[in-house]
Amino acid sequence: MKSRIEVRQAVKDLSVYSVNQPDCLVKLNQNENPYRLPEAFQRDMAEACSRMEWNRYPEIDGRSFREPLSRGLGVDPDTLILGNGSNELLMAVMTTLLEPGQRLLVVEPTFALYRHLGKLTGADVLVLPFEGMFEFPEEMLAQALADPRTNLGVLCSPNNPTGSVLSLEQVQRLLKVARGALLIDEAYVDFSSQDLVPLLKEYPNLILTRTFSKAWAFAGIRLGYALSSPDLAKEITKALLPFRMSRLTLEAGKILLKYEAWLRDRVGEMVKERERLFDSLDEMEGITAYPSQANFILIRPEREAQWLFNKLVKKSILIRDVSAYPFLDNHLRITIGTPEENNLLVKTLKSILGDQ
Ligand SMILES: Cc1ncc(COP(=O)(O)O)c(C=O)c1O
User: Are strands 332-335 and 296-301 parallel, antiparallel or unpaired?
Assistant: First the structure.
């Protein structure tokens, strides 16, 4: 008998998540930390690897890393779930809280995975646009979250790709009216003065996700975490696989914590660079730049974004064309690089735009 594979319609309707990555010497397209961790870190890792019992499964709950991490954050370990990148946790939260017919609320343009994962669960995705210069539409958000059909709202603060932030007071107001859960993705929190962790004790409907991929220079290892009430954390854990955090990842995380001061210094430099790059872009003819609280800056060129993107690629500088994002035609996103990379970008942009 001929087999017939039935792929779910919700999956068929999605596209494979992809990133346009031409080879370039200067890489400013994925909001990574431009600095490699120091030599001492590399030596600690090599030493840890030589001792590793590769033949044994890792800890089922990643406790030996979860405990020092939660201590540093001042939270109970039972409120913290580890993931191979925060993407994995976003997926687990959505599969825990959404089913066909329920509603996911997002504000776009934002990280494309929210819509993708929401659709994957079969939920209805309600999309609100930003207001003015990419400010969160608080009134509309409050109304939509108060609707009993909205089982989950996912907001990104600082938001990728606009750099917009929600204030603590705004989040509090939204949590008070929300009938379901509100997840705030804090992937870029280290580059801002935001800290929503103190709200977790008061609001059992709050979920935070964070990542080591950006400020913590760990995009290659895949490590992130979610914070929520212990009850919700227990439910979300059921949607995750056992033994998913490898021995290598857990060990790398423990070692990384020793380098926190070094990383905080780099983040401080990147924030200064962001302001310096913003001033240069803001002064440039032919470009509108938007202020950002993250490690990237959104710009709108007067000429076609694709044209500018290609011109930069020819000079071996890769940025991100975000023109296909909803409500964002003709925009580009630039990750903050090292001072040398940022100088080169500014010089190249000036020569391209002056050359027209
Ligand atoms: C807003 C946001 N959340 C989450 C992620 C994914 O992070 P991770 O590497 O932890 O999966 C990204 C990556 O670009 C992001 O921009």
Answer: antiparallel
Q: What distance in Å separates the CA atoms of residue 247 and residue 92, rounded to the nearest whole number?
A: 21
Q: Which runs of consecutive H residues, i.e. helices, occur in 52-112?
A: 63-73, 86-97
Q: How many A from CA of 87 to the centre of ligand 1?
A: 6
Average pLDDT value over all residues in the chain: 96
Distance 60 CA to ligand 1 centre (A): 24
* Ligand 1, pocket residues at CB < 6 Å: 31, 85-87, 111, 156, 160, 185, 187, 211, 213, 219, 224
d(CA 127, CA 172): 21
* Alpha carbons 288 and 286: distance in angstroms, whole number: 7
Could you read off the pLDDT of 60-119 as tens digits, one per residue?
Answer: 999 999 999 999 999 999 999 999 999 999 999 999 999 999 999 999 999 999 999 999
Q: For residue 269, what are the domain limits? A: 9-37+261-355
The one-letter code for the residue type at 240 is L
Determine phi and psi for 301, rounding to 5 degrees: -80, 150
**What are the tens digits of pLDDT across the range 145-157?**
999 999 999 999 9
What pTM, to 2 d.p., does this model score? Answer: 0.96
Ligand 1 nearest atom to the CA of residue 219, by list position: 9
> For a substitution probing ligand 1, which of 91, 189, 211 has the most ligand atoms within 8 Å of its CB?
211
Asked if 102 and 94 count as a contact pair (C-beta separation under 8 A), the reply is no
Residues 267, 244 share a domain: no
Last residue of a domain, one of 226, 241, 259: 259
Question: What atom of ligand 1 comes closest to residue 88's alpha carbon?
Answer: 11
Residue 148 maps to which CATH number? 3.40.640.10
